[in-house]
Design brief:
alpha/beta
Length: 254
């Protein structure tokens, strides 16, 4: 059952990227959900730990799970992003659309249901050439496309690296997270996070992920959310579909 959101209140979604990329990452996300403030996750269906992630999700039904479409991998070097590998040519709209639907079908097979939201690895869906493809799929599924939905303000304020992608674990301290929470406006806000416990993960961000888990599980963070009257929610609980006569709605917990 859904009820209309109260426009005077503040709602917060905390979404963990890279669900399924490795077992250690899955465990970090699950810990940050069970013992912290993570409410949603985005699943990478092409990775070896995707099935384990789906099993974890089945055991934790309050964790909203969306599709984290993977079109390739890029590393930051020499003051620019360089391609490590690509799944498709992102300049070829037809190929991107075909790959998106392939991964969507894989998600449905793994999870037994459609995703609660849609996005992409390293925000590739924000590329102007392929953004319309992602918008079309999200609209057909009646789910939010992250960073692009008018009902949800995306804020990438919790990230442990500087502009050169040099790891900065101090950026993701519980104190910094609390500061960001205190500044969220009325309406629906989303924080994108990257918790994980896999120190062998092939990722520039690997060393920072455990610090995110620690901050996201901080009792002080939860205390500030509760005392501030902020409503912690998820993409599954919230249904931000706009029309002329209807605003976003939120599911009532049983």
């Amino acid at each position: 059952m859904h009820t209309r959101l109260q426009t005077s209140l503040r709602y917060l979604i905390v979404n963990a990227d890279d669900f399924g990329i490795s077992s250690g990452t899955n465990q970090g996300i699950l810990r940050a959900h069970r013992h912290g403030v993570v409410t949603s996750a985005s699943l990478m269906v092409l990775r070896t730990a995707a099935r384990q992630a789906a099993e974890y999700a089945a055991e934790n039904p309050l964790l909203s799970v969306g599709l984290h479409v993977e079109l390739g991998e890029w590393n930051f070097a020499g003051n620019q992003w360089r391609s490590v590998h690509t799944a498709v040519d992102i300049r070829d709209a037809a190929s991107v659309g075909k790959e998106l639907h392939r991964q969507l079908n894989m998600f449905t097979e793994l999870m037994g249901r459609p995703p609660t939201h849609l996005d992409s690895h390293q925000h590739m869906h924000m590329n102007a050439e392929i953004l319309p493809i992602f918008r079309s799929v999200a609209e057909a599924l009646e789910i939010p496309l992250r960073s692009c939905h008018p009902a949800v303000q995306y804020r990438g304020v919790f990230f442990g690296a500087d502009e050169n992608m040099t790891p900065r674990p101090d950026f993701v301290s519980s104190a910094n997270l609390i500061g960001a929470i205190k500044q969220i406006p009325v309406g629906i806000t989303e924080f994108g996070v990257h918790p994980g416990l896999d120190l062998a993960l092939d990722s520039e961000y690997c060393a920072v992920r455990p610090a995110e888990v620690e901050a996201l599980c901080s009792p002080e963070v939860r205390k500030v959310i509760d005392e501030s009257g902020i409503i912690l929610t998820s993409f599954a609980q919230i249904k931000p579909i706009w029309s002329r006569n209807a605003g976003p709605t939120v599911a009532r917990n049983p």
